[in-house]
Structure formats: structure tokens, C-alpha cells
Design goal:
Helix content is 38%, strand content 0%. The protein has two helices and no strands.
């Protein structure tokens, strides 16, 4: 590494959503990867407004799931 050894964010843009989805679907494999990859974090690039909306939707889904006594539905965001 160089003078500044702190990790830096890297934005990757794919030519098509199918490639992004393929990567995102296989992220669980990082848990079992080599030690040097354990600190890798991959997330969707969202604006502050999009992150806030996502938090609201997740909270709503959790609330609906806790209120659903029949357990017939799965609430996902």
C-alpha cells in the first residue's frame, strides 16, 4: 500500500443490471473467503433520500411481520 494505508471506497458500475444482480446474489460466499477478503463490504449505491426510504420500508416490513400472527406471509424489502 501507499502512504495512506486506510481502505478507500471503490464504486463499480456494471454495464447491465444482470451482472450487478449476479454479484449481489453471490455475496454470501465472501463469508467463507480468505482472511484478506473478510473486511470487504459491498452495498448498493444510494442517495441519502433513498437510504432513508429504504430504512422506512424495512421498519414497516419488520412491524408487519411482528403483527402477522398467521405466519403466512414473508415481508421483504
Amino acid at each position: 500500500m501507499g502512504v495512506n494505508d486506510t481502505p478507500r471506497p471503490l464504486m463499480v458500475q456494471f454495464a447491465d443490471y444482470k451482472y450487478k444482480n449476479l454479484v449481489m446474489e453471490n455475496l454470501f460466499k465472501l463469508k467463507h473467503a480468505e482472511q484478506k477478503f473478510n473486511n470487504v463490504v459491498i452495498a448498493h449505491d444510494m442517495t441519502a433520500k433513498e437510504r432513508e426510504e429504504c430504512k422506512k420500508l424495512v421498519a414497516e416490513a419488520k412491524q408487519r411481520a411482528s403483527e402477522d400472527t398467521s405466519r403466512e406471509y414473508i415481508y421483504r424489502v
